[in-house]
Amino acid sequence: MKRSEINSSIRAAMALFESRQFKLPPFAFWTPQQWQQVGEEAREIRENGLGWDVTDYGRGNFSHTGLLLFTIRNGNYTNRQRYPKGYAEKIMVVRENQVTPWHFHWNKREDIINRGGGDLVVELYLADENDEFSDKAFEVTIDGVRRKVAPGDKVILTPGESICLEPYVYHTFYGRDGGGTVMVGEVSDVNDDANDNRFYEEIGRFPTIEEDEPAMYYLCTEYPEVKK
Q1: Which of 1, 10, 27, 204 has the fewest CB atoms below 10 angstroms from its CB?
Q2: Cα–Cα dist 134/126, whole Å
Q3: Which domains does the chain have, with CATH numbers?
C-alpha cells in the first residue's frame, strides 16, 4: 500500500467516527514526532498492538480486499502477569464491497457488531479437522438468539445487530452493495494476530508500505522502541 492511501483511509475513518460521536482515546492522535518523546509509560500500547491498523492483506487492492481497524484495548497471552486483561475491543471501517478474506481463530471468540452505516454481510463455514470448509450445518448466536446456518450461508447484520463467532468458524465480511460504509465494532477474547489467525488462502496480514508521503500516524506495527 502507498502511505498516502493509508493516511487518506485514516482521515476518512476519523471523520466517520466523529460524525457518529464515537470518540477515540488520546493516543489515536499522537503524531510520529510525539511518539519520539513517549517512553516506558506507553509500553502497553506498543506491546499489545493498540492503535491504527490498515491493511490490504498483501493483495495490493485496498478498496477490494482490505480493512481499517483501531484496537482500543487488548491483553497479551505471552505476558499475562503484566497484562492480565482477557479481552480486546476494536472499532473498524468496512467499505461497501470491501472484503476481509476468509479466516478463523483457534482461540479467540468474538462479537462482530454493526455500529452504524450500511449493512454488514458475514459469510460462514465451520472448519473441519483439516482446517478446510466443512459441509456441516452449525449454529451461531445473533444478539442472544441461536440460529442454524448452512455451509456458506450469509448473515446480514443491520445497524445495531451483532454476531458471536466461536473459534474454528471461518468467516469473511464486507459492506453490502449499495449500502455504503459500515462502522463495525469487535469485542473479543485477547487478540493475537501473530499466532491466532488461520487464513484460508495465504496472505499478508500487514501491508508492505510504499513511502510516497510522510506518515500522519504510526500503525500499530511501527512504534519506535523506548529509548534506553
Answers
A1: 204
A2: 5
A3: 3-199 (2.60.120.10)
